[in-house]
């Protein structure tokens, strides 16, 4: 599938293996870019997967920050260099998931993009890894995943990414986007969310154990936590263990993690 834009005379082929669906609705593109608030005072923005620059064209009009793009598709890179020559020195060609962001950015920066749906979770895990450098993220992804990330405790959509991201970011669901806004249209609805870094510098527990407890708890989300967390050991009686994973907020998972840590110490 090729996408043709007026007055360009060329096109970029959407590649299925890269999960590419090119946004064509300019009103939606403008809304996504306007979702950036420069929270935390950053003055650089990295767009992930710009494709043919439907977001990029609006980003470049913003004087508040300097735009960089990360693009793995060589065809898209060539297109961007021709149509946005001023951007050429700031095109980071390659796989975002493999980039050393500390080398590329010495100061805080925002992230924006129409994330490829097949790697959106991996992008968020990398964001968590560099959370002290990334105060804000505005992105479009599969609506189901967007709702899950923004969902509060007690909701059926609430899951692993909800807890891990909400531990360090305040999250807003901004707008839904229908398949017809893309070419080729995806088979699913899309949604735009915004993540803004909260005041939590570090969790009051072992972070690796926190991640492990959250993942283990949701692996068997229909079970009570006493049963779901059995792979981590035999927990002492605690009111939280009578609940299910989706009922707990970040602070309660921190409390459970401390219990898990004490189990590990007892084993030693």
Q: What does this 3D model show about the protein?
A:
The protein is of the alpha/beta class. It folds into two domains: 2-197, Vaccinia Virus protein VP39 (Rossmann fold), CATH 3.40.50.150; 207-267, rRNA adenine dimethylase, C-terminal domain (Helicase, Ruva Protein, domain 3, Orthogonal Bundle), CATH 1.10.8.100. The chain has helices at residues 26-34, 56-59, 74-83, 101-104, 120-129, 143-150, 160-166, 207-219, 225-228, 250-267, and strands at residues 2-4, 11-13, 22-23, 44-48, 66-71, 91-93, 110-114, 136-142, 169-177, 182-183, 190-197. A hairpin with a 6-residue loop joins strand 1 (2-4) and strand 2 (11-13). The longest helix has 18 residues, at 250-267. It is elongated, with a radius of gyration of 20 Å. The model is unreliable at 1-9 (pLDDT under 50).
Low-confidence stretches: 1-9
User: Which sheet architecture does the biggest sheet show?
Assistant: 7 strands, mixed
- Total number of domains: 2
Classified in CATH, the superfamily of the largest domain is Vaccinia Virus protein VP39
Q: N-to-C SSE series?
A: EEEHEHEHEHEHEHHEEEHHH
Question: What is the end-to-end distance?
Answer: 58 Å
Q: What is the residue-averaged pLDDT?
A: 90
Protein name: Ribosomal RNA small subunit methyltransferase A
InterPro entries: KsgA/Erm, rRNA_Ade_diMease-like_C, rRNA_Ade_methylase_Trfase_N, rRNA_adenine_dimethylase, SAM-dependent_MTases_sf
GO molecular function: 16S rRNA (adenine(1518)-N(6)/adenine(1519)-N(6))-dimethyltransferase activity; RNA binding
Function: Specifically dimethylates two adjacent adenosines (A1518 and A1519) in the loop of a conserved hairpin near the 3'-end of 16S rRNA in the 30S particle. May play a critical role in biogenesis of 30S subunits.
């Amino acid at each position: 599938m090729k996408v043709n834009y007026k007055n360009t005379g060329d096109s970029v082929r959407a590649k299925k293996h890269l999960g590419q669906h090119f946004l064509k609705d300019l009103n939606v593109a403008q809304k996504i870019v306007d979702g950036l608030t420069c929270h935390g005072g950053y003055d650089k923005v990295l767009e992930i997967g710009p494709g043919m620059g439907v977001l990029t064209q609006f980003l470049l009009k913003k004087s508040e920050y300097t735009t960089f793009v990360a693009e793995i598709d060589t065809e898209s890179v060539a297109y961007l260099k021709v149509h946005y020559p001023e951007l050429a020195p700031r095109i980071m060609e390659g796989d975002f998931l493999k980039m050393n962001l500390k080398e590329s950015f010495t100061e805080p920066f925002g992230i924006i993009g129409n994330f490829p749906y097949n790697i959106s979770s991996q992008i968020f895990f990398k964001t968590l890894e560099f959370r002290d450098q990334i105060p804000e993220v505005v992105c479009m992804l599969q609506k189901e995943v967007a709702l899950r990330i923004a969902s509060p405790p007690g909701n059926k959509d609430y899951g692993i990414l909800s807890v891990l991201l909400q531990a360090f970011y305040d999250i807003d669901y901004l707008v839904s986007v229908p398949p017809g806004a893309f070419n080729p249209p995806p088979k699913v609805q899309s949604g735009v969310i915004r993540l803004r870094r909260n005041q939590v510098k570090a969790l009051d527990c072992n972070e690796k154990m926190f991640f492990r407890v959250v993942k283990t708890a949701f692996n068997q989300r229909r079970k009570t936590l006493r049963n779901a967390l059995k792979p981590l050991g035999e927990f002492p009686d605690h009111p939280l263990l009578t609940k299910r994973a989706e009922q707990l907020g970040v602070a309660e998972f921190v409390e459970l993690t401390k219990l898990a840590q004490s189990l590990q110490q007892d084993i030693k």
